[in-house]
Structures are given as structure tokens and as C-alpha cells.
């Protein structure tokens, strides 16, 4: 009786014991089953699928808890190739793909990309001016206190040179490429620290705003604040708290990394702070093929389309995002020997690295959980 009680207490106090975590390792040879689970000896074998196939349940590789389920290989869904409408007339905006001059609002298609209207040309929206210019209204002026920010459609204006860093502004598109209007001042995107008061998340190094301030998540376990790689002891809780005021954002168990020892990782949001905080500032930009909203944005898909970020930066961001998604397995190294074939995450990512590129993932979904 006594021993049963002790076991129960231990279970309540420590949750998952590392003995109940699966050991995860790479299988070899052709196997249509990409995840094989042996409950008798708590072993999970992952086997890469053949070309053009992918594991039907890749989601299991993120947030590893020990509860693995068998999964088979499935056909990869074909990526739709982006098509250009060659029949549009005088509509395509600056920096967007075109087939001929007639497609572009500016009437000029250069190397498959629409050029913008030049300085002093009549315009109605910012996005038809050349990069670094905006459509400055000629029949009314914006108030200078920054509270009246319109999206400036149907202006009567002239393409005009953008303001400079630190200048007084009323809307984002007036500011230089890669800047925005933050409390009436042209401010670089991804530049503000936690607790800075900002008008938009795009100014934060974390790309995350809460209660009008740049914010992020700290991770705590066993009453200690963790730093990357957020290692914890299996059986303990992970607490995710807002950096600005320590309010609880989320809580869960320390996750097994598929290795038979009692080190796990607070992997659910291991990427949010101290991680993205370092990633986004490296992606500050000051060039663009585009103008208007497309050159004052924190939307990475747009920024790649407009060449504001290089393919190296795209690979870096994508690699960091994939590592973050599969944080626990990435940190434990349990499947490093087959991860390239699995295509889950690159094991090493730097801004200078040359990992193979794939489709961009939606980074902000990680942060949206806290919005
Ligand atoms: C676990 O069990 C399976 C099948 O019973 C066996 O193929 C595998 O080798 C075992 N793994 C370990 C690590 O003992
Ligand atoms: C994979 O897909 C590509 C393009 O869709 C095709 O050319 C290739 O033959 C396929 N390979 C296999 C092994 O099916
Ligand atoms: C610009 O607009 C003004 C006023 O509508 C017009 O007089 C002028 O001809 C236009 N300039 C060009 C180059 O279209
Ligand atoms: C500026 O001119 C445009 C087009 O003539 C008009 O639609 C708009 O209302 C005008 N704006 C103001 C503030 O007068
Ligand atoms: C900003 O300027 C507008 C127009 O000038 C005014 O109505 C508004 O009260 C001002 N807002 C602040 C916060 O000063
Ligand atoms: C913004 O300011 C302009 C000029 O003062 C005014 O015409 C416009 O109605 C204002 N828009 C809003 C949404 O307050
Ligand atoms: C900007 O215009 C769009 C429609 O073109 C509208 O839905 C949106 O509310 C406008 N935003 C502002 C801030 O006025
Ligand atoms: C802009 O003007 C065009 C044509 O004049 C009109 O069809 C469109 O609805 C206007 N858009 C807005 C947001 O006012
Ligand atoms: C905006 O800037 C003004 C002047 O620099 C400053 O007094 C004010 O506190 C700022 N507001 C916010 C919300 O940061
Ligand atoms: C928790 O922290 C205390 C002291 O801070 C340490 O002595 C203890 O070993 C830790 N427990 C675990 C399970 O890491
Ligand atoms: C557990 O395994 C991981 C990965 O192999 C290693 O980094 C960690 O140091 C190990 N922890 C302990 C307590 O041995
Ligand atoms: C990343 O790993 C690959 C293969 O393991 C290696 O060839 C490459 O040099 C590494 N890159 C960096 C930047 O460490």
C-alpha cells in the first residue's frame, strides 16, 4: 500500500519519467513506414521516405513527448508554381513580375519585374512609385502627430523621395525602405528591445507586441530562468512567461528528446525569446525592388519576393524556423544521422551557410499563439 502511494505521488510530482520516453533513432533501408513504434521496449524508429514522398505525420516530430504513433509515407503535394498573368494592362505594381511593358502601372517591365514611376510622376498609391519613393498627396496634408495614419488609396499625388531615418512622419510608407513610422519618427524595423513602447510589432526585435510594448517569452523550469537550448529535467514543468511582466503565457511538461537520459527540453516555444530576438534583427533591410507597403513590412514572404532579403537570408530564416519547430529533436541530436533525408531541419544554420532551400514557412504562426 505504501509503495503504491509513493508511486502515485511521484507520478503527480514528476509527471513523465524518462523511462517512459521513447528512444528515437534512424532506421535504414527502404520502408514505407516512416515511423515505427515498438511499445515493448519503448523504441521508435524513423525511416526516411523515398523521393517525392514524405512522412504523413511529420507533426509528431515537433513537441516530442514520448507518445509516438506509427505513420506511413505519403505522396508529397505538388507545389503550385507561381504564374504571371500576362494579359493585365497597366496594373502590376513596382517590383512585381511582368511579361511586357503594358502589364506595369508604370508602363515599364525590366527583366521581368515592373519598374516604378519616377520622381515627380503623378501617382495614386505608394506601390506604383520607384523603390525608395512614395506617393505624396498634393491636395491635402497628413497631421504630424502620427495618429491619423491612412492607407492612402486613391491619392492625387506625386512620387516623392522618402524621408530619412529619425525624421518626423505620419505613415510607414513615407519612411525609408525597411523603416516605418513609430510614434511619428521614422524607425528601423526589428530594432526595438523588450519593453520599448511601439505602435506596431514590426519595430520589435522580437516582432511581437503585447500591451503596446515589445514583448517576448522567457522560459523557466525548476524556478530557474533557462537560456537556449532550454534544457530541463524530464518530469518537471516548463513555464513560459512574458518577458515584460512575468505573466504566465503557457505551461507544460519538459519534453523528451528521444534519448534515454533524464535531460529534456522546454521545446514548445523554445524559439520565441532569446532566439527570434536574435534572428529578426539580422534581417533588417534597406533595399527592395518594391515600394509602399511591400518595402515597409515584416512579412517575410513579401520581402523575399521583393529581394529585400537574399537567398542566404531566406535559408537562414527558414533553417532557424525549422530548428525551432523541431527544437527537442534538434537539440538532442537523436536523429541527426537521417535528418537530411527526412527534411525536417538543418543541423547547422548560419547566415553564411548554404543549406538547400525549400518553401518558406510561416514564422509568425509561432508568435501568434501568444497574440
Ligand atoms: C525493440 O523491439 C523491436 C521489435 O520487438 C526490435 O526490432 C528492436 O530491435 C528493439 N530495439 C531495441 C533497442 O532493443
Ligand atoms: C519526382 O517528381 C519529379 C517531378 O515531379 C519527377 O521528375 C521524378 O521522376 C519523380 N521521381 C520519382 C522517383 O517518382
Ligand atoms: C499629372 O496630373 C496633373 C493634374 O491632374 C496633370 O495636369 C498632368 O498632366 C499630369 N502629368 C502627367 C505626366 O500625366
Ligand atoms: C484629393 O483629390 C482626390 C482626387 O481628386 C479626391 O478623391 C480626394 O478626396 C481629395 N482629397 C482631399 C482631402 O481633398
Ligand atoms: C492629432 O492631430 C489631429 C489633427 O490635427 C487631432 O485631431 C488629434 O487630436 C491629434 N491627436 C493627438 C493625440 O494629439
Ligand atoms: C486624416 O487626416 C486628413 C487630413 O487632416 C483627413 O482628411 C482625414 O479625414 C483623416 N482621416 C481619418 C481616418 O481621421
Ligand atoms: C484601407 O483600405 C482598405 C480597402 O482598400 C480598407 O479595408 C481598410 O480599412 C483601410 N485602412 C485604413 C486604416 O483606413
Ligand atoms: C479608388 O478609385 C477607383 C476608381 O476611381 C474606385 O473604383 C475604387 O473603389 C476606389 N478605392 C477606394 C479604396 O476608394
Ligand atoms: C512619442 O514621442 C513623444 C515625443 O518624442 C514622447 O513624448 C511620447 O512619450 C512618445 N509616446 C510614446 C507612446 O512613446
Ligand atoms: C532544482 O534546483 C535545485 C536548486 O536550484 C537543485 O538543487 C535541484 O537539483 C534541481 N532539480 C532538478 C530536478 O533539476
Ligand atoms: C542526455 O543526452 C543528451 C543528448 O545526447 C546530452 O546532451 C545530455 O548531456 C545528456 N544528459 C545527461 C544528464 O547525461
Ligand atoms: C554544416 O554541416 C555540413 C555537413 O555536416 C558541413 O559540410 C558544413 O560545413 C556545415 N556548415 C557550417 C556553417 O558549419
Automatic annotation (TrEMBL):
InterPro entries on file: Diff-Dev_Assoc_Protein (IPR052326)
Source domain of life: Eukaryota
Keyword set, alphabetical order: Signal
Leader sequence residues: 1-15
Annotated protein name in UniProt: Uncharacterized protein
Highest classification ranks of the organism: Eukaryota, Sar, Alveolata, Ciliophora, Postciliodesmatophora
